[in-house]
Design goal:
It is a single chain. The protein has about 800 residues and is mainly beta. It has 3 domains: about 100 residues, Sandwich (Immunoglobulin-like); about 110 residues, Beta Complex (Ferric Hydroxamate Uptake Protein, Chain A, domain 1); about 550 residues, Maltoporin, Chain A, CATH 2.40.170. It is built from 4 helices and 46 strands. Strand 18 and strand 19 form a beta hairpin.
């Protein structure tokens, strides 16, 4: 701790003697839109910059005195404002640009930052991608809007190596990357862990950020594949909004609105409210969905240096529980894509709510503090027929399946408090960009399990019998039976972490990123069985240390070469031979990469090679019951390529490719060399959009997106320790999706149309062999919107 105090004292001392100030603010058009990438200069100086995608800017390192700030933006009158810079203080301004009276042939505003110029909020320290020894992807608002994104899977059609690994029950999209499941620990919304047991609402998204590889130093026990952050739209101080209506195939209807502006014309308080309602049928018989979503937010400027952001959201969804088309002896059943094998009444109901308060205080242009507190609640009730092939009720070769019932209830609460101190200073000629943070979170999961006993079937869990190949062959029940509560499981988890990271610029071309984190995790399991049975209790804790070290060499401004090492950990609950809980499994990651800006920054092309090794995977001890040891090993290795262009002559491009191989390289349980499930060896993506500049077709934009998901396996990994094992891996076919897009705007109205899965490809997302969900067929979607 003494070294940490010394570090903080050093930062404060250097800043105290600083003789510069800064100016920050936001630039908007008269219509309330952010002036993205407007040019800013201080007259008669070399100091200048551009606004970001939200119109925000910051000019730092300015000597005290009076200056003229000049702002220019295509289609707007040039703007000038006198400002006063004071040492160690931040001057804040709000700028509204007026439309130019000069006639222009065309005005097209696009995000002109390259892939490598963008920073990600989830990185906490504000390090530019070009300086970061880690692969980063950002899918921004323009892409989300142009592609009429409706699900998170639509966003992932633009990413390499991050994909949907399953859609269990048809009610969620399970994400993975580099061979590892993301899960709720790896999915974030505005920097806070987000339960992805329900499909997130995309109408509120400003962008989606992905940090590939290990981020354990920032977040503790996250999986090694990467983290994904959903960034929602923020309040604005200019009045505006949008109302839209989307419709599509299979009676899909979705009205939504987005309004924002100052509260009572205040210069210090602004709000934003996003809301959407969705009602739809499905290409799947009997399947339907109904959901409503609200996302209010308020920003308060509490003085020149402090900003308070309050955000909340509420999602209610009722969706038909759907385990797909079934499998027979580890082969996907040959039944029509629309065939529904569940009961007509079954459901999955979700209520999800959150509230977050983020306070940002800027001491000066070199030191800031961000404090975050957040709460999330998640309630889920699931009731329907069991998954095919579960509970030893296998689908027979002739298609006969005895259906049982399952019912569960889940109540979850999550709290987190987090503080990050971000500072920059110099020690001689060496520059430092330091992040020092601490967090504490608490997670409570309460699960209720119910049972069904059919008196006419010897009190067994038997609802009825169907034939998956011919649903008319046997009668189906339509009643909703009563169930009995049989188990209540309470799992509280408490976590704390302290971390420090420093981006050190040793030379103009050489940078080093180093950091370390101490984590403490404590968990309990309380199980009560009904109507009788002694409760069981178990607890465990662990306190792993995670590190990262990376080197970035930039032989020229347009090229960064990097190498890095980082580790992460996976918690274990299994017991060793002495009855003690196994320590956490530590996972090592090595990464080499190059980030380049080609053709004078018009095209970004990045490539990464990686290897991730879990050298101490928990495995059962052969010959002993309920005893495990750290004796297994899983290795993931691969390469990723990401390409993104600016808009040039109306054309913009996003493309990517990834190769991944994840296998058991040592195991006391599974066959060495066998693949881990759900991970495609190859993925690829490409999108091309063109905006017409000819007068007759002006404001018309067309595009095509394509994505490829390669062969992968599901089923169950064969156990080498059982000579007569019936488990098998189940192949899942590759597929290619083509989507066509068109949009036309006039005045404040825009019309967008989309045909997805143009070639009507058929494949599946499969969990084990019991949730075999076909991908959607060819669909049509159109959106009409009005903005003001």
């Amino acid at each position: 701790m003494k070294s940490l105090y010394t570090l903080i004292f050093l930062i404060s001392s250097v800043i105290a003697y600083s003789q510069t100030g800064s100016v920050t603010g936001k630039v908007q058009t008269g219509a309330g839109e952010p002036a993205a990438f407007a040019n800013l200069t201080l007259r008669d100086t070399r100091i200048g910059g551009t606004t970001d995608a939200s119109g925000n800017f910051a000019l730092k390192g300015i000597l005290p005195g009076a200056y003229t700030l000049v702002v220019s933006f295509v289609g707007m009158e040039s703007f000038e404002q006198q400002i006063e810079i004071v040492a160690d203080q931040v001057t804040s301004v709000e700028i509204v640009l007026a439309e130019s009276g000069q006639e222009l042939d065309e005005v097209v505003v696009v995000d002109n930052r390259t892939l490598n110029e963008k920073t990600v909020d989830i990185g906490k320290a504000g390090i530019k991608s070009m300086d970061l020894p880690q692969s980063v992807l950002v899918i921004d608002a323009a892409v989300l809007r142009n592609q009429q994104v409706g699900r998170l899977s639509d966003v992932l059609n633009n990413t390499s190596g991050v994909y949907v690994m399953g859609t269990t029950g048809g009610v969620q999209e399970e994400i993975a990357g580099r061979g590892f499941a993301f899960g709720s620990n790896n999915t974030f919304k505005n920097g806070v862990r987000y339960n992805n047991g329900v499909m997130p609402e995309t109408t509120s998204l400003e962008r989606v950020e992905i940090l590939k590889g290990s981020s354990a130093i920032l977040f503790g026990n996250v999986a090694a594949g990467g983290v994904l952050n959903l960034v929602t739209k923020k309040p604005r101080f200019q009045q505006g909004g949008e109302i839209s209506f989307r419709l599509g195939s299979y009676d899909y209807y979705k009205p939504s609105f987005d309004i924002y502006g100052p509260v009572n014309n205040s210069e210090n308080v602004a709000f934003r409210l996003n809301a959407a309602y969705e009602n739809s049928q499905s290409f799947r018989d009997e399947v339907k969905a109904d959901r409503i979503f609200f996302n209010p937010s308020v920003i308060v400027k509490a003085g020149k240096k402090t900003e308070i952001l309050l955000e909340g959201d509420y999602l209610r969804e009722n969706r038909t529980l759907d385990y797909g088309t079934g499998a027979v002896n580890y082969e996907i059943a040959d039944v029509p894509r629309n065939t529904f094998l569940g009961a007509s009444w079954q459901y999955n109901k979700v209520n999800q709510k959150s509230a977050t308060v983020t306070v940002t205080h800027t001491f000066n242009d070199k030191l800031s503090l961000r404090v975050l507190n957040s709460y999330q609640g998640f309630d889920n009730e699931l009731y329907g027929t069991m998954r095919p092939n579960s509970n030893n009720q296998f689908v027979a070769e002739d298609g006969t399946w005895i259906r049982g019932l399952q019912r569960t209830g889940t109540e979850q609460e999550y709290y987190i408090g987090q503080a990050d101190l971000i500072g920059s200073f110099e020690t001689g000629s060496i520059k430092h960009q330091v992040l020092f943070g601490a967090e504490y979170d608490q997670y409570t999961n309460n699960t209720l399990t119910y049972s069904y006993a059919n008196a006419d079937a010897g009190n067994k869990n038997v609802y009825d019998t169907i034939n998956i190949y011919n649903l008319d062959l046997l009668p189906q029940r339509i009643d909703i039976p009563a169930t009995t509560l049989t188990r209540k499981t309470l799992n509280p988890v408490s976590r704390a972490g302290v971390y420090v990271q420093d981006m050190v610029t040793l030379l103009e071309k050489l940078k080093v990123l180093a950091g370390v984190r101490y984590s403490y995790v404590e968990s309990e399991s309380n199980v009560e069985n009904y109507p009788s049975g002694a409760p069981t209790f178990a607890s465990y804790y662990d306190d792993p240390i995670t590190t990262r070290f990376g080197v970035v060499y930039q032989p020229m401004k347009q090229l960064s070469l990097f190498s890095s090492y980082s580790n992460s950990f996976a918690l274990n609950t299994a017991l060793d031979v002495n009855g003690d809980v196994l320590p956490a499994s530590l996972i090592d990651q090595y990464e080499l990469g190059a980030k380049s800006e080609l053709f004078k920054g018009l095209l970004s092309a990045n490539v990464t090679v990686y290897q991730i090794v879990n050298r101490n995977l928990a495995q059962p001890v052969i010959g002993l019951t309920n005893v495990s040891e750290l004796a297994g090993e899983v290795t993931s290795k691969g390469v990723e390529l990401d390409v993104m262009s600016k808009e040039v002559n109306g054309i913009s491009v996003i493309a990517g490719y990834s190769y991944n191989d994840t296998r058991y390289t040592e195991s006391t349980q599974y066959i060495v060399g066998s693949k881990l499930r759900y991970n495609p060896a190859h993925t690829a993506n490409a999108s091309v959009f063109y905006t017409f500049k000819q007068q007759a077709l002006k404001n018309l934009r067309v595009g095509v997106t394509t994505s490829y998901i390669g062969d992968r396996v599901a089923g169950r990994s064969t156990r080498a320790t059982m000579p007569n094992d019936t488990y098998k891996l189940m192949p899942v076919p590759a597929y290619v999706l083509f989507d066509l897009h068109a949009a036309y705007s006039f005045d404040n109205v825009s019309i967008r149309a989309k045909v997805s899965n143009l070639l009507n490809e058929l494949s599946y997302n499969v969990h084990d062999d019991n949730s075999v969900n076909p991908i959607a067929p060819r669909l049509f979607t159109a959106t009409l919107s009005y903005r003001w």
